[in-house]
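Table S2 (continued). Query chain:
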Amino acid sequence: MRKPENRSKCTPTMWWFKRVKRNWQGANASCGAKAEGDFFWKEEAPDWWYEFFRPGVRLGWSLLYWVNYTGKENVPASGPVLVVCNHQSHFDPPLAAAPIRRRMWFFGRKSLFRFRPVGWFFRSLGGIPVDIEGSPLAGVKETLRQLRLGRALLIFPEGSRTWDGSLRPFRPGFAALARRSQAAIVPVAIAGAYEAWPRWRPFPRWGIMHVMYLPPLYPQDYASWDDESLIREVRRRIEEGLEKLYSRPILREWRRWLHQLGWDRAPEEAKEEMCRQPFPELADKSPTSRQMVSGI
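Corresponding output:
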């Protein structure tokens, strides 16, 4: 007599394909936190997962690019921290987070999380989806929650990558986040990432990138300042850091060489885009993150 088929038996390979198929079918679903997080881990990924990738990223920078780090000891080893960086290219998040020996969370456009396997991967490494075109309230709430848990958050107050290498106006939201969470603020200057992968280039090229972690501002340092004074001070420190980095002979010669070859000049369509809307965040009439944080 033929034995009935055991339908409950499932090999690891079958489990994997069923899991991927189920998430593939939901790839066009919305980017809710519950849907994105339930790919392999229902909650956030464990710290060992993040630490598994961090040395590989650091090794990749060493093999493919000439990267130099200064002032890593300025990032506090514990407690809530806002690591505030200038934004030059797609390289910036892994470039700034790789040498820090603590887990970092970071913002990401919500569109990057729509394909669920990719969204899960970004979220597992600390990505927080933010709806830039709509309301970023959910991302702001998640950011504040992570800071209140004593985590470190990587943030780019310019809001988007620079078109020409210059420092763009800062959005004020990070000041309110720092006050509500009593977080230390570490300004970070990134130089050379724009030359390696400018916004108007579809693919990166080889380059020299230097990162400087500046002395932190603790809550007691900025307690008596208003938000505008705090933003000006953070911006001033980043500007001074960029000036110091670009005055280094190796970066100065690298930029001069790129200029002589004409590789630092944006194409005409990129120049038209810069002239059309150079700072779209200043024209945005939606509620700012500072206003939303004050209501949380």
